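Possible regression after last week's pipeline update?

I re-ran a chain I had predicted before the update to compare outputs. Posting the input and the new output here so someone can diff against the archived version. Not blocking, just want to make sure nothing changed silently.
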Amino acid sequence: MGLNRKRIKSKVKSRRKLKLRHIDKGFVHFFSKRRLKYLTIFMRVMSHVGDGYIWFLLCIAFIIFGIIQEGEFTTGGEVATGMALSISYIIQVLLQTFIKHIFNRQRPYVTYEEISSAIHPPDRFSFPSGHTAGAFVVAFVLYFYHPALSIPFFIVASLIGFSRIYLGVHYPSDILAGVVLGFISSTIGIYISLLINV
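New output (post-update):
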């Protein structure tokens, strides 16, 4: 009886995994075959907005703006926001790089011939989405320090995540994992910032 139960559980798990893979592939394949010229251009722009150097510049901008506004390097206001963003983003980069090399998940267009890529990705691995994680790190940190300001950043982060699916370089599950990673990284980053009184 015990062996039968284990076999049944194993079969159920296998079926669930196959179903999830089918859903993942289905989403990417759907958009891969239905791309529109100008929408693709827009999605490429949104994807590039999620490039790491954009968020790095934003972190620096907050710190500089805070120093100019306050007249000195203080630990309040925009300086605190910039430091929390910097710490959170560094944590996110380290975690997503580590996770990517554990899972080694190939990108959709590599695994499936019928799926094409409309943009050149920065690395080979798909899970989780670094672009999405980075964008949501910024959105979550801003939500903590400046709730009203975070709204457009959540919209942009969502568009970045969708663009990665549309362009054929990520599965929906990669995007969801990126959102979760962004939340975890921002939570840790904010906590560290508060601990050191930034």
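Follow-up from reviewer: compared with the archived run. Helices lie at 2-32, 37-49, 52-70, 77-103, 108-111, 130-145, 147-166, 172-195. Marking as no regression found.
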